Protein 1
Amino acid sequence: MSIVGARILQSIHIAAPPETVFKFFTDPVMHTRWLGREVVLDPRPGGIYRCVVNDSSTVVGAYVEVDQPRRVVFTWGFEGNVVVPPGSSVVTVTFEPATGGTEVQLVHAGLPHPMLNPHDTGWRGYLDCLRLAAATTA
């Protein structure tokens, strides 16, 4: 399990350069290749992060920091959800050059305790989708 205290910590190696992997968090077309079926992204501090994941889940937040290709930070929560409302938690993703690609570290903080396990499982699956999508783009 990758839950430490009240944060989710996950890392994955991706066989693509940081510049490519970073775009999967800021380019709407690339984003839908690994997470969401419809997205609206304005990757600048204060810009919208909105991702329709499926019929019952739409993530809404805002970009906090965009440091291409090293780091992206955005808020996260769900439309119509009182447990994790829009923008109520923070996702920080860093991209480090590594042999054969990029080491991606994701930290999700600010989630209420009952939502840690489902988000941990979700991020694990989505990061694997990201690994596959980015590897075929590189």
Protein 2
Amino acid sequence: MVYLSELTLDPHNRYTGRLIGDSYELHRYLMKAYPDIADGGAGRVLYRVEIMKHHPRLLVQSEREPDWERLLPQPISCRGPKPWEPAFQTGQLLRFRLRANATRCSEGKRHLLRTREAQAAWLERKGGQHGFELIPLPTGSDWFDAFDDDIEPKVEVRMARSPLTIGHKPHTDDGASLNLTHRGVDFDGALRVVNPEAFSAAIAAGIGPAKAFGFGLLSLAPMSG
């Protein structure tokens, strides 16, 4: 079981700007709602930032139940936490949204996948690892696609570059900070569940790297139209 929440932050609060502009600070902010390490810690926490009519919205999924009253400043609205124990069936069709840090490892470093084809192939591989396969989008889908080239991916999925994510992690020794930079891609599409057990595990754990900084949350919705 996991807990789902939706937090809307006050766009007029100066600290909100700092949170949205610093992924490490945002991570620290959210962690305040969970038990300390001595009390078992937060477990896996996944989230995604979305800007809705100039209001920053945080979609949060967590292993432990949060107490949003512990956050300062308080969100201007909060939905949840809502317990969710997903149960999937082989062949089940779902729509999905994923902001992922699509990268490859080489010589101990992560390198961003920059082309449309490479990003689509990355998601297809993740599907094979995590119990799902991509299927054509429903007719009439109008998701935004920021790519303006003519290269079509081998899978049916819409992709858009997500904003650059920057964080500043303080050093404990000299007071300097380590700059954290992540670039991701937003995937919107449809999938078929192939292995319910593996798929459920992927929902709980997240997909891809940089999960502490706003990547990896796989959001689902029933298939329609």
Protein 3
Amino acid sequence: MKISDRDLAQEMTASLPTLTTFARFLSRNSAQAEDLVQQAMLQAWESRARWQPVSTLSSWLFAILRNCYYDEYRRRRREIAQASRSLIADAVIAEQSIEWNPSDLDRALRSLPAALRDPLMLVAVRGLSYQDTARLCGCKEGTIKSRISRARAHLSRLVDTA
């Protein structure tokens, strides 16, 4: 069953608030989050012929958004690696003045490796099923359950030591 461009556009538009929330979590910067969402939506629209209605649209959009974030992250890492020491110092100072004031939970979540944090956020915050999360992360459902369990155990240890 193929979905019309009009229906797809409506569903994509309906996904904007949750995509923006996820992008804000990833980037910790609302301006960068808006750019990420815009890039993800553009890529999704350009690739709409490849979307298979077998998977949920939101899972597909989240995967695109996550990949956009990682692409941006890698690009920035290369730029910083090529910069002089003074430029790196300026970037660190600018990064510290970001409007976002992270909470203890945010820091704890960020201390998790991405392989543990992403599934936890998709299931606990976004409310995706283990099956959709597994499809999105490209692994088996049992792997997702294991990663979420390890992430929760790690967070629990952090809370116990605080």
